[in-house]
Design brief:
Shape: elongated
Mean pLDDT: 85
Bound molecules: zinc ion
Helix content: 40-55%
Structural class: alpha+beta
Radius of gyration: 28 Å
């Protein structure tokens, strides 16, 4: 067998034949030619027999490594004039538009990104993290399941901050499937509007969405099947949800109530800690340093050291301990297994306790809960429990921590999408196996 035919079978790229193989000190360069005569626009279905010219240089894509060798595919591409997109280099069947990697290589990156940590991926593939981000954003844009927005009944819209300086992503979860089905950069009403626009495209395209609440918008077919939408307590998402899916019950996910109690507790703890430091009580400040980590945890999840810190806080009493018991009372109100009647009693008991409580952040918490009491109870009635959202949220938080290194929200979003489903990345060998 000739070297070129051997490499043709080894690299297994569709639509090309190998013209030449070169061994360089650090890589193998494989020169290929396209089998098809017609030129294909890389951005649409347009194809033509007419070439404008040929690029003066080879295009280069990195392919899956071969043993220790780095593999480079080179191809001299022609250029065409697309009536919609102007003059462009022709598409190749083995790589995405504007990618410097083959589809097989990008598949591998996407598969790993959903499973392995940053260092593993970077060292194994010899890529920098931002390149990984660009690759997975491309894979996501290309391979999202188009039916992922079908048959949604019970969803949650939530924001997550993926970087400091207020960089937010809005994520829509399908509660029944326990998956994230949609996401975009940004937060608030606009982000939710974007979701509803994609849910029912024909409406978004047909009539501009009304601005005020007084106009009656047409409810989209898919938005019309939503039975429940759970939200946090901000009003941006709620406003949009009410407008686009007026039949759905808007409820407040108890998870967010507990989260709010945790931030109130943190506020009290910080105030207390600063006071201790101010008084020059270094010893006390040091002893309660890891309180930050023990306080928000469920008692059963504490490490021994954290449990000891908590015991010291209890012995010390005061504001922080009082705040802790209030937080635990809030969490207990939404414990799994309670009926709506149980929660109704507990929530009212909690409200009267919070109204009498001293640390100011908890008085505020009480006011917020009172304002959203109906929405919270609606969530319990519909069986939206804290545990489910929490599990998904913890998963998202883990991924978001890895996404910190990315420079674009698009890449962060792609990482969430790859890990919490709508896309199931395949490994290259699975794509090429005869049974696939
Ligand atoms: Zn085109």
């Amino acid at each position: 067998m000739r070297v070129t035919s051997a490499f043709s079978r080894l690299v297994r790229l569709p639509g090309v034949w190998v013209r030449h193989v070169r061994f360089e000190p650090d890589r193998v360069e494989i020169e290929v030619a396209l089998r098809r005569r017609r030129l294909q626009c890389p951005r649409c279905a347009f194809s033509t027999a007419a070439r404008k010219d040929t690029r003066p240089v080879d295009s280069v894509w990195r392919h899956l490594d071969l043993g220790v060798w780095r593999l480079e595919i080179r191809c001299r591409r022609r250029r065409l004039r697309c009536p919609h997109h102007g003059v462009l280099a022709e598409a190749v069947p083995f790589a995405r538009h504007r990618a410097h990697f083959t589809r097989d290589f990008e598949c591998l990156v996407a598969w790993l990104a959903a499973r392995a940590d940053k260092t593993t991926i970077r060292r194994l593939l010899r890529l920098d993290w931002d390149t990984v981000g660009r690759i997975i954003a491309r894979v996501c844009a290309d391979e999202l399941d188009c039916d992922r927005l079908d048959e949604l009944y019970d969803i949650g819209i939530d924001e997550v901050s993926w970087r400091k300086q207020h960089s937010y992503l809005t994520l829509v979860a399908d509660h029944r499937g326990g998956k994230i089905v949609w996401g975009c950069e940004g937060a608030g009403e606009k982000a939710a509007d974007a979701f509803f626009a994609e849910l029912d495209r024909e409406i978004a395209a047909g009539s501009p969405l009304p601005d005020g609440d007084d106009c009656e918008p047409t409810v989209g077919e898919r938005a019309g099947t939503l039975a429940a939408i759970s939200l946090d307590m901000g009003h941006g998402y709620a406003k949009s949800a009410r407008r686009h899916a007026p039949q759905a019950t808007i409820c407040i996910d108890p998870y967010h109530v507990v989260q709010l109690a945790n931030s109130a507790l943190d506020e009290v703890r910080r105030g207390d800690w600063n006071e201790l430091r101010h008084l020059g009580d270094q010893q006390a400040a040091k002893r309660f340093k890891d309180a930050r980590w023990s306080l928000p945890k469920k008692p059963e999840n504490l490490t021994d050291t954290q449990a000891a810190t908590l015991a010291r806080l209890k012995a010390a009493g005061g504001e922080v301990w009082r705040a802790y018991t209030l937080k635990e009372a809030t969490r207990g109100t939404f414990a799994p297994g309670l009926t709506v009647d149980d929660v109704t009693i507990l929530i009212d008991r909690l409200l009267s306790r919070l109204a009498r409580s001293r640390p100011e952040p908890f008085i505020r918490l009480g006011r917020t809960i009172r304002k959203h009491r109906d929405g919270i109870l609606a969530a319990i009635r519909l069986g939206i429990n804290q545990g489910r959202t929490e599990a998904l949220n913890n998963k998202v938080q883990l991924i978001i921590r890895r996404a910190h290194g990315f420079h674009s929200g698009r890449a962060a979003l792609a990482l969430v999408t790859l890990t919490c489903r709508p896309i199931t990345p395949h490994l290259p060998h699975a794509l090429h196996s005869p049974t696939h």
